Amino acid sequence: MRLVYYIGIDLGGSSVKAGIVTEQGTVVLKDKKPTRSKEGSDTIIRDIATLVEELLVASELDGQEVGGIGVGIPGAASKEGFVYFATNIFWTDIPLGETLGKMTGKPVFVANDATMAAVAEYRLGVTQQAANSVFLTLGTGLGGGIIINHQVYSGHHGIGTEVGHMTVGHNWDYDCTCGNNGCWETFASGTAMKNHAKKLLSQKTPSVLKEKTKDDPDHISIWHLFEGAKEGDEVCLQVVQRMTRYLAVGIANLINLFDPEIIALGGGISAASDFFLDELKLQVSERIYVKKMNLTRIEVSQLGNDAGIIGAAMYARDEERRNNL
Amino acid sequence: MRLVYYIGIDLGGSSVKAGIVTEQGTVVLKDKKPTRSKEGSDTIIRDIATLVEELLVASELDGQEVGGIGVGIPGAASKEGFVYFATNIFWTDIPLGETLGKMTGKPVFVANDATMAAVAEYRLGVTQQAANSVFLTLGTGLGGGIIINHQVYSGHHGIGTEVGHMTVGHNWDYDCTCGNNGCWETFASGTAMKNHAKKLLSQKTPSVLKEKTKDDPDHISIWHLFEGAKEGDEVCLQVVQRMTRYLAVGIANLINLFDPEIIALGGGISAASDFFLDELKLQVSERIYVKKMNLTRIEVSQLGNDAGIIGAAMYARDEERRNNL
Q: Could you read off the pLDDT of B273-294 as tens digits, one per residue?
């Protein structure tokens, strides 16, 4: 039997990562380049094509053995790979699938990066083979990927799963960049935590953060906040507690709507979950509508840095197979 | 070819409606009884079985021609028809499917009443053949039914689609009966509108409502509120405007999450939608995350009183066919 490989691309704000992945989800070779956002989409797409070419040469595979290319983008795209927007790399209406397809001669499949991470977890990680799951990336922002009935669900027009922009309350501190007030990611994300800490510091509350950041609030990282909380610092504790409370509000909403088998937590904040996971589970159990059926498991993602590459490759595999049915 | 019929049951707080429905969704005969909630679930289930029997006799069908029975309940149930709860008829953990199945000798399929209404709209109404849609019942409370990829989606454990208990803000006036504050239905439902009107009246705001209700705030109906708003009454206008604003918040949330093809509005409030639909669509378009892709249609349901019966029968048809695959 001939082996088939898929190429997974993780297009992020700072780097483009690419990998050759087996049908079973093992990365055999990977590489990356900086994302040249300021030079426009043509440059970035050419860089992706070059990465693909270089990986094929280095791996001594000829193109015949590659079944397709999956690209995870920080934005939303149609099933055909037309990128509606990818804000932090300044893309609007870019025909990524078509252009990259012509350059490489391979079928290209594009989806949101959180969706790709959800696929990786579904194939190899914590939501493995769960029929219905929601994956959350708790990073700078708050993204989501949804699997329903064993398939990626991105909405009818490819613009769903924007979990971070679900209104969950009123945020008295700041509006969301999307123009609304009260988006979930303004309460439960790295940015939300940093903003909350800055506000508390501006109220002259004493905190170990001053020392950790050499008195520059712009240098606060989520690691400072979790470290400080572990040390018992009042400001850091308040920040983590509020983030946890709102994480519970949004997760309870998702359970009331989707009632998934598992909700998986990924992204930078999830790496510190030992500090808040028990409290989060408790608060979710108190908020869900059907309290006696507290069945949705809340788990921390298992895959590391390669999740974006693996998920994109597995997504390409699944879509290519579906197209060939 | 032998004709097959399905029986649809709409179990509500005040009445049990039943109908014999063709495979195409036409009601050929229907009847109803009062819901004897206080006499317990056994009595109600026996009443349902009696209704079924009486309809079969009156229609001169023998049982052979009936493919199955669908029951819409005001609560949540497993796929096997085990009712976890149905608060306003005082049910907890009732094996409705099993009991009614034994009494009638027919396969019984149970789901939430809003889900059944969603199925009716999908088969014969405004969401007809849409792959992905959300149906909202804007009545005393706020219920929902979700169709994903042409199939009913009720969650992994059958307790999803509780849209009314999505937290969307802080409600300074009252907590939700579920124990949380800020549930969508405390802002956008008949109960929410009445409570808001009562509050404004208690602040001595002059209003035509006093005349319409003979100065008894407990007699306020949503019709009084919409009538008053059409007459330009300040209290009624405020009530309708706030309901519309929060309806837009929640619908934008659903679009950001599900990105459906259509969101259909049913229930008593939707009957007055000529008064707020344009404003609602405008506000939704301003709130959704991908503003340039304002593609989800917001439509008023087309089916009348029989939607519950028809939906339950069509649900039974679809589930029975799936089981026989």
A: 999 999 999 999 999 999 999 9
